[in-house]
Amino acid sequence: LTAHSYFQGQVDSGSCQMSWSRPRFVLQTEFDKGWTRFADKYQLHLYREGGFDVHDEPYRIPVLFVPGNAGSHKQVRSISSAAAAAFVELAGKDPEVVERGQIGFDFFTVGLNEEFTALHGYSILEQADFINDAIRFILSRYAETRAKHQVASADTEFALPTSVIVVGHSMGGVVARTAFTLANHIVGSVQAIFTLSTPHNNPTASLEYYVDKVYMGVNSFWRHGFHNGTLDNVSLVSIAGGNRDGMINSDYAYVGDLAPARNALSVLSSGINDVWLSVDHQSILWCGQMAIKFARMLTMIMDARRPEQILPLDERMQLMRRELYSGLEE
């Protein structure tokens, strides 16, 4: 099938029962105590965009959104809505996108009780533990649904996902990196992390000793992980809001000393083509220019033909630099 007929077929086949409400957050009730010890404390939802998404089961490319300090799972809405629109736009222009493995995204999002992770080190660890369990659950769902919704032509075969793209806002980016250091992390289950206004290098406020201790341990792990093979194929992209962000010093968002240039990219929103704006701490999630640019970039790096569901590291880093850098960095 071409991309256009794929999308049209998905809409037509489910239009009789389809909910056109936007947004919808589908609680993953099967993600219970059998999967995680934090089932009574945190929740996992699947975002669905009315008018675009037909099915309440995942079958496309998995993405997990992690909110920040006192954040809500609903903050995923602008990015995920823009991603749905970006895929439909791409499919309308290029009928062969599905054959290249570009099939759209399943955005999952976690409800973390709006905890103050910036002030409590143990909350960082508990959320990171939950994130690892959530990723394991998400990947388990595709064995049945990916085959059920196989829509490409006979010449294209989609692989079962072995990794999830992670997007973290603020302290959510720290939680995402912390997840790599825990015993329940599945090596290779995350190949790409995108962080928005995340204080990677230092806590925003050193009010508790254990926050500093978690930061020291996590950053040490990442600085050494690219030398011992643990993080070789992981890309880490950090986008900061600049001087309008009154909560996070954008210098803290720099990841060049945590990962080698082959794997890392740091950029201010004011230096991104088609954005050119400094944005405050919350609006980096819903600023129209930012959401559209970010969604289109995600669409470009997807490849459902590969188990990782994204392009190889060097190829995707080259593409992301082209999309995010102004061209004056050299």
TrEMBL record:
Its EC number is 3.1.-.-. Residues 61-299 form the GPI inositol-deacylase PGAP1-like alpha/beta domain. It is an enzyme of class 3 (hydrolase). It comes from the Eukaryota. Its main location: endoplasmic reticulum. The keyword Cell wall biogenesis/degradation does not apply. This is GPI inositol-deacylase. It is a multi-pass membrane protein. GO terms for biological process: endoplasmic reticulum to Golgi vesicle-mediated transport; GPI anchor metabolic process; protein transport. One of its GO terms (molecular function) is phosphatidylinositol deacylase activity. It is found in: Endoplasmic reticulum membrane. Belongs to the GPI inositol-deacylase family. Coiled coil: none annotated.
